[in-house]
Amino acid sequence: xxxxxxxxxxxxxxxxxxxxxxxKGYLRFFLFCxxxxxxxxxAAYLNxxxxxxxxxxxxxxxxxxxxxxxxxxxxxxxxxxxxxFEPRPDDIRNAVLTVxxxxxxxxxxxxxxRNGAENFGFLLVRGFSTGAMHIVCGAMIxxxxxxxxxxxxxxxxxxCALLGxxxxxxxxxxxxxxxxxxxxxxxxxxxxxxxxxxxxxxxWFAAVSKxxxxxxxx
Length: 218
Known about the structure:
Layout: H1 4-22, H2 27-53, H3 58-85, H4 89-115, H5 120-148, H6 155-179, H7 182-217
């Protein structure tokens, strides 16, 4: 049996002390990191609960229940941040990505505790692919929220649409991993390729936008 709440305390304790030592300037980062790990802990309990309620096997729980529960829980602290503090667009993006990174980190640690750390090659691939999957889902929501929350009429519908896109991507990844075989290798490559393409496209758009702005100014 894995006592993940004990694992959470052991990981959070040194980070909490570090946040206290580094001061208010870094407090937001650590809070969202804690939020990501905390939502991972709560999502694990909810995944188990719904799997028992619906009598789902491991495949169904992984492909159908986990993506919905985990993406909703990752979004909740960000929504609280948006409603209460009304942050700047860049702060929204950073908050979502930090929550996603905290979630992925805690999930990988729990996986290591349950399954051991003998197979370095597999764990290396899984660590990067799972992390990239959560980051891609976070990026979808983060960059989308930067736009939809500027439009009052689009907040609710846009947030639901972004959540649906993240759940779909997460579900495809989990489905391929659970199916096994060649599909598992595709699953490992999918989020990494998506992440690199997204970063490249973002940099290209930023460069084009900067170039057009310079032309307009001249």
